């Protein structure tokens, strides 16, 4: 893969250019296709330096750019290079009309730093493709003198008027993007800002979105209507197309055709895999089928998404991951609950420092009730009582706690519901290298339930009772003798974000959020907990 050579020029006095420059450098350097150089001097804008690069990211607030520098910059862009102006770039060189014309806009004024909503105005452009409206804490720049050929991709409201925040234009064979956001770390670390900046760099280099990904859905069973739910999420994701559905049940296939007219239907899985016009297979089938169905699809050259859990055993997961890597295909697990509103809100609470450094996380799910007579209560098919909700909880732990798991303790009970084969009650304890302890309790035998979440930190705690309560209860001791208690409402959940990311990955090459390795790590923890319960002692997971 050819790397894009990026020069960041960060210089001036009105912002913290040293810190912001390093932040931009760190962000772009994390991308494997970007080779980044940071310069803190505007002398780098010259013919001899620019010719070594493909894209210039300008984060500067300066008064003067020499005529020679401007001539070199303009000629460089016209020959097919990219310019990305960030935030105060529109303030720079205020008397240089040629620069204003190149950038396509000029700074006029701004309000105070505050949180405001940003809305995409063009959803088919490479930079804003699949980017939903988002909020950000920043200076809201008010711009003037937009050139006639500038396209506005983002806006926000200020005093009942829409103001441009992202513009793009072409100059000769080159491309120019200007992103008005980015005053300080509050916005530079915003995930939406980071996506927009990385895409602006790639677009200015000439990147285009790939062809739509044609998807085949396997399993249209009635349980929770998850087959239909996946189909609708695929249909609602630009860049993905639902093309086929496979199920053994002809009645279910007839229902699928009613909901999704025009799709191909199959009863035989291998007949579906023979279709060369299918790119991605989505498995919404019982847990014990995931491994062999995924390996078949990967081996036939398809990308694969499995419902959670990824599989039953770690050995199965290893074969799935190795096949995906060998065939150079995407393997992902539908851990959609990383985008649940309660969970995303918890992450924000922790990142804000409100409860200090987390050292223990406890979760509970269940109650006292028969587990039912369906396949999810059959251990051979489901994997066991931790393979359902437990897979979500452990995925949350591993996403939330940036550390290696050094050992796992499991305590599995079979005491009452003997007509089914899943365990009645399971407790798993994960101990991380950084000292954090996480516990999960999953039960059909808990006559006295507990809070769904309890998160303990060095300066407080966050708890959530469970469904029916739509906020976190946060206790904070920012001063040792001062206690504050607050309720933090949940953000809106966004399962669609999972499929948007899949489309971003497959059509734009962006990082995949939920990788096959992540699903395998979850299965390794569950398997180790079961082995620990049988052995009567803590065990080190094979994949920590």
Characterization of the model:
This protein is an alpha/beta fold and 544 residues long. It folds into 3 domains: 4-205, Class I glutamine amidotransferase (GATase) domain (Rossmann fold), CATH 3.40.50.880; 213-337, Rossmann fold (3-Layer(aba) Sandwich); 338-494 and 515-535, Dihydrodipicolinate Reductase, domain 2, CATH 3.30.360.10. β9 and β10 form a beta hairpin. α11 (314-327) packs antiparallel against α16. The protein starts with a strand and ends in a 9-residue tail after the last helix. The model has no long low-confidence stretch (mean pLDDT 95).
- Give the strand order of the largest sheet, numbering strands 1, 2, ... along the chain: 2-1-3-4-11-10-9-6-7
Average pLDDT for all residues: 95
**Measured distance between first and last alpha carbons:** 31 Å
Strand share of the residues?
A: 25-35%
List the domain count as a whole number. 3
Structural class, by secondary structure, is alpha/beta
Q: Which word captures the global form?
A: globular
What is the number of helices?
16
The main β sheet shows up as: 9 strands, mixed
- Segments where pLDDT lies below 50 for 5+ residues? none
Supply the CATH architecture of the largest domain.
3-Layer(aba) Sandwich
User: Briefly, what CATH class of the largest domain?
Assistant: Alpha Beta
Report the CATH superfamily of the largest domain: Class I glutamine amidotransferase (GATase) domain
How large, in whole angstroms, is the Cα Rg? 26 Å
Q: Give the helix level as a range of percent.
A: 25-40%
User: Which fold name fills CATH's third level, the topology of the largest domain?
Assistant: Rossmann fold
The count of strands amounts to: 25
């Amino acid at each position: 893969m050819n790397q894009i050579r990026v020069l960041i020029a960060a210089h001036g006095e009105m912002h913290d250019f040293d810190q912001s420059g390093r932040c931009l450098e760190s962000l772009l350097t994390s991308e494997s296709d970007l080779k980044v150089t940071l310069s803190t001097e505007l002398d780098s804008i010259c013919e001899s330096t620019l010719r070594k690069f493909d894209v210039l990211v300008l984060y500067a607030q300066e008064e003067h750019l020499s005529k020679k520098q401007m001539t070199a910059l303009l000629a460089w862009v016209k020959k097919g290079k990219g310019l990305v102006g960030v935030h105060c770039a529109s303030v720079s060189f205020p008397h240089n009309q040629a620069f204003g014309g190149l950038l396509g806009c000029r700074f006029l004024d701004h309000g105070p730093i505050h949180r405001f909503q940003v809305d995409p105005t063009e959803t088919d452009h490479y930079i804003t493709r699949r980017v939903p409206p988002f909020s950000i804490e920043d200076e809201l720049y008010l711009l003037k003198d937009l050139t006639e050929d500038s396209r506005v991709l983002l806006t926000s409201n200020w005093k009942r008027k829409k103001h441009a925040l992202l513009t793009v234009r072409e100059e000769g064979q080159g491309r120019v993007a200007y992103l008005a956001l980015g005053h300080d770390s509050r916005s530079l670390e915003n995930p939406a800002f980071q996506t927009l900046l990385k895409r602006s760099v790639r677009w200015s280099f000439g990147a285009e979105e790939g062809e739509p990904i044609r998807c085949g859905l396997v399993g249209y069973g009635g349980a929770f209507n998850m087959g239909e739910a996946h189909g609708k999420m695929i249909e609602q994701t630009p860049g993905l197309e639902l093309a086929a559905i496979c199920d053994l049940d002809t009645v279910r296939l007839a229902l699928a055709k009613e909901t999704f007219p025009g799709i191909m239907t199959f009863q035989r899985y291998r007949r579906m895999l023979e279709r060369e016009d299918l790119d991605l297979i989505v498995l919404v089938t019982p847990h014990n089928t995931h491994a062999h169905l995924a390996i078949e699809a990967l081996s036939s050259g398809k990308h694969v998404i499995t419902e959670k859990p990824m599989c039953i055993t770690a050995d199965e997961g290893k074969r799935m991951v190795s096949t995906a890597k060998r065939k150079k295909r995407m393997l992902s697990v539908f851990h959609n609950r990383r985008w649940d509103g309660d969970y995303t809100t918890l992450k924000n609470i922790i990142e804000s420092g409100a409860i200090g450094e987390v050292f223990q996380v406890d979760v509970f799910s269940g109650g006292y009730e028969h587990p039912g007579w369906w396949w999810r209560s059959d251990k051979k098919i489901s994997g066991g009582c931790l393979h359902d909700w437990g897979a979500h909880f452990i995925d949350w732990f591993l996403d939330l706690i940036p550390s290696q798991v050094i050992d796992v303790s499991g305590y599995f009970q079979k005491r009452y519901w003997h007509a089914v084969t899943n365990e009645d009650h399971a407790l798993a304890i994960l101990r991380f290298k950084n000292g954090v302890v996480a516990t999960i309790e999953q039960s059909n035998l808990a006559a006295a339930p507990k809070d769904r979440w309890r998160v303990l930190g060095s300066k407080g705690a966050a708890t959530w009772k469970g469904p029916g309560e739509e906020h976190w209860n946060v206790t904070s001791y920012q001063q040792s003798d001062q206690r504050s208690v607050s309720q933090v409402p949940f953000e809106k959940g966004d399962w669609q974000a999972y499929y948007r990311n899949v489309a971003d990955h497959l059509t734009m090459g962006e990082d995949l959020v939920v990788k096959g390795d992540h699903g395998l790590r979850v299965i390794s923890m569950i398997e180790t907990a079961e082995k620990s319960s049988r052995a009567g002692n803590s065990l080190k997971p094979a994949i920590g």
